[in-house]
Amino acid sequence: xxxxxxxxxxxxxxxxxxxxxxxxxxxxxxxxxxxxxxxxxxxxxxxxxxxxxxxxxxxxxxxxxxxxxxxxxxxxxxxxxxxxxxxxxxxxxxxxxxxxxxxxxxxxxxxxxxxxxxxxxxxxxxxxxxxxxxxxxxxxxxxxxxxxxxxxxxxxxxxxxxxxxxxxxxxxxxxxxxxxxxxxxxxxxxxxxxxxxxxxxxxxxxxxxxxxxxxxxxxxxxxxxxxxxxxxxxxxxxxxxxxxxxxxxxxxxxxxxxxxxxxxxx
Amino acid sequence: xxxxxxxxxxxxxxxxxxxxxxxxxxxxxxxxxxxxxxxxxxxxxxxxxxxxxxxxxxxxxxxxxxxxxxxxxxxxxxxxxxxxxxxxxxxxxxxxxxxxxxxxxxxxxxxxxxxxxxxxxxxxxxxxxxxxxxxxxxxxxxxxxxxxxxxxxxxxxxxxxxxxxxxxxxxxxxxxxxxxxxxxxxxxxxxxxxxxxxxxxxxxxxxxxxxxxxxxxxxxxxxxxxxxxxxxxxxxxxxxxxxxxxxxxxxxxxxxxxxxxxxxxxxxxxxxxxxxxxxxxxxxxxxxxxxxxxxxxxxxxxxxxxxxxxxxxxxxxxxxxxxxxxxxxxxxxxxxxxxxxxxxxxxxxxxxxxxxxxxxxxxxxxxxxxxxxxxxxxxxxxxxxxxxxxxxxxxxxxxxxxxxxxxxxxxxxxxxxxxxxxxxxxxxxxxxxxxxxxxxxxxxxxxxxxxxxxxxxxxxxxxxxxxxxxxxxxxxxxxxxxxxxxxxxxxxxxxxxxxxxxxxxxxxxxxxxxxxxxxxxxxxxxxxxxxxxxxxxxxxxxxxxx
Lengths: 266, 546
Fold this sequence. Notes:
The complex is a heterodimer.
Chain A: E1 4-6, E2 19-23, H1 34-42, H2 48-71, H3 73-81, H4 89-104, H5 110-121, E3 124-133, H6 134-143, E4 148-152, E5 154-157, E6 160-165, H7 173-185, E7 194-197, H8 203-207, E8 211-215, H9 219-228, E9 232-233, H10 248-259
Parallel strand pairs in A: 2-3, 2-7, 3-4, 7-8, 8-9
Antiparallel strand pairs in A: 1-4, 5-6
Helix pairs in contact in A: 2-3, 4-6
Chain B: H1 13-16, E1 27-29, E2 37-41, E3 44-48, E4 55-57, H2 69-78, E5 95-101, H3 115-129, E6 134-140, H4 149-164, E7 169-171, E8 180-185, E9 191-195, H5 196-199, E10 203-207, H6 218-224, H7 228-231, H8 237-240, H9 253-268, E11 271-278, H10 299-313, H11 317-326, E12 333-339, H12 341-356, E13 357-360, E14 364-370, H13 385-396, E15 400-402, E16 406-415, H14 428-440, H15 444-457, H16 459-467, H17 475-482, H18 484-489, E17 492-496, H19 501-506, E18 510-512, H20 515-522, E19 532-535, E20 542-545
Parallel strand pairs in B: 4-19, 5-6, 5-10, 6-7, 10-11, 13-20, 14-16, 14-19, 15-20, 16-17, 17-18
Antiparallel strand pairs in B: 1-4, 2-3, 8-9, 11-12
Helix pairs in contact in B: 2-3, 3-4, 6-9, 13-17, 15-17
């Protein structure tokens, strides 16, 4: 499947686990969403005038994004990724690494990572399944020592993003389809696998796994979880962060600082 | 003002014996003209005609409450059993930990002020008077769910809550490895782990409520402040099978194990136990008819019963559950003792038996019990099928001393709708236990061998226990083991009024639509010669079976 990505692992790193735990990223492992990442990218592209133009365009698009979110998560992803049109692949990957270090790692829920590591200690292999772009997810997977992940990928033309996404778009039922192919390839029984997600749009993904867990669920997923008797877990930032300290306020200051420190354009 | 000691006459041994016939009117044999009987049926009550010849066992009337509970507590602290008075053990530089029973008892919750609030206020005042300020309050939840802020506030009262919450008043966390300490092993090889704060304290006070005789004693500290590593030594099928019954601590392997552990704790920790006993005044005011013999119902009682059942029947499930959970029982304190654990518990136990014990002659072929809406593990939550099993076969079957009320190989009829309903935030591991483990086997030893360790270590369940309000991952196993003595003893279990037969089948039970059908099934082999006993509760009763 085109969207399937396996990070190059070192020798002997191939896991022998027969049970996997599939984690959504935004809202599940981290208290951020794709819009945060997009704003960060827009605010760090080009010179001042370019940044202003990107942000203005994004701001104008907000109503459309809101309607897309109400309608379909897949549509939201597609609309949001249009914002990257014209940005070079190198710049996106460089900023992805930076975003991961400066923002994403600080906003991982400490207890989510604690749980991920505890699962790993029991031989449950972690796998990321997210609608975020690969240039964000790959650096995170590397830092969390996660071997496999599935993420969305942009289409590039001559090294520049076209604003379109490679099919299948990782959202809703595509996530469950990916999990099925992943487990089938490894002869893992999906009934023994765990799935962690926060959104109602992840319902097909959660339903496909034997141990679905609703994490900080939205209103509709909460109702579905209650109805289906799924465990409901709530993560927050009230414990010590995973790495160096950081809070939402600190992130904002950080982000503003980054936005004004003269990052080079594409 | 009356002197408190005047109101605290200790019971003499002779008074504690229940002569056959002393409470004869509490065992009633029905005839054709007898009135229908009230039977708890989940969050409803049945009013059912039982076959002529059925023996009905009623709870004894509530004991007289202490006239001045606060004075009685102060007196107990001044005149403890086998220990120096509390004030004499205090100095300003000491570290004190106060452990408190959680809301798994009494059931239903009691009207305010809670007994724990009364005890805390007096103990805290004493500590303050003697300049002790390094004080922590730990709710001894063991592997139960963490109590919520509002539940703790209601239990300990405003004064303690405002002063100690949340830094110095908190739930015990059995999964916080850094806060646990191992004290050693008993001569039976049982590992004794305990809250580190309690171990490192100069004085550990335990404030207890004895609702039933299985509560209190060494079980309070050695279980309430202990993690899975300790509990697995007695909460297992092998130990529980040797309990005859849970309500008779002298014949319960569970209690013997807890006693061994508790004595080891007391060698390392200065434990000062405060135990209380309460009466069985579960219903008062407009609901007092629920404690009456139905043959003595007045027209007013029957009208209230009709109104009560009509009201419950016309509520939605969630509203009915909320209303019932909000109900607070007018329990009153009947005794309080303080000091050395064993000495205190002996006296508390005598008072508890004085409240509940009813002499009963002989066993029967069929035992009928109604499982109500609440048990120790679903306070403000949902009664799921595993808890119905625990209540029916674990608690209600064990409401005896001597012999079980039902003969070996007999039948237990459990009245409950038995719905496939769970609270996903309170009982997440129960759901997997019921739908995955019980599908494979209902054999307790197999469940223990194949699944227990996996559930106990499961990171999601550990997280939900530590940071959410979930029971520990291993808890459903303990609930299942709890029914083990009954499963070993009885031949059949029939769920009467079962709405979802698959649920009964999953647990190895038979199901019947109505109580009549269940009785017909149970007596099919024996015909009219079958003897039937109905244990009329709530409130609680313990049968001394000859």
